[in-house]
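Weekly modeling sync, notes
Attendees: S.R. (lead), two postdocs, one rotation student

Agenda item 3: backlog of single-chain predictions. S.R. asked that every request posted to the team notebook include the full sequence so nobody has to chase files. The rotation student volunteered to paste the first one in as an example of the format we agreed on. Action items at the bottom.

Example entry:
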Amino acid sequence: MELYKIANNYYKVLNDMGDIFDIECIQNTLDGIEEEFSSKALNVAAYVKRQEKQINAMAEYEKEVSKRRKTLQNKNENLKKYIQENMEKCNKNKIDGIEFSISIRKCPPSVIIDEQLISDDYISKIVKHFDKNKIKESLVSGIDVIGAKLEVKNSLTIK
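Predicted structure, as returned to the notebook:
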């Protein structure tokens, strides 16, 4: 039976207790449902733990693959620079081959910015940043911050 169905049965028995006067019967029913609920919840938690291990293993693998990809990208960029430098040294702008050709072309000019020196007239977007720590401090100390509130949530811990 699904966990939510077990929880619904437990809740139903608690609400319907007024109709039954045999306290021992009620207690036995609740104990049985609670045992089934606990067992099912532990099984679901075990599944979550296995999934977390798999997620962590995947994350580690992704890091390794990403690192290898970056290494290959850097190696390719260095090889391209190597070819370009040597073609320029030999005054070669194009080399034709059977499968592909290599050429050096002029790129459109790119803008190099020194953020310390450039005028504010050239800034087109300013990103808003809310200082959540300052807002929290104000709310905790009793200051009303319009547009903000404190929210307390529960979280499940599986150890």
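Discussion: group reviewed the output briefly. The mean pLDDT is 86.
Action items: rotation student to repeat for the remaining queue; S.R. to check formatting next week.
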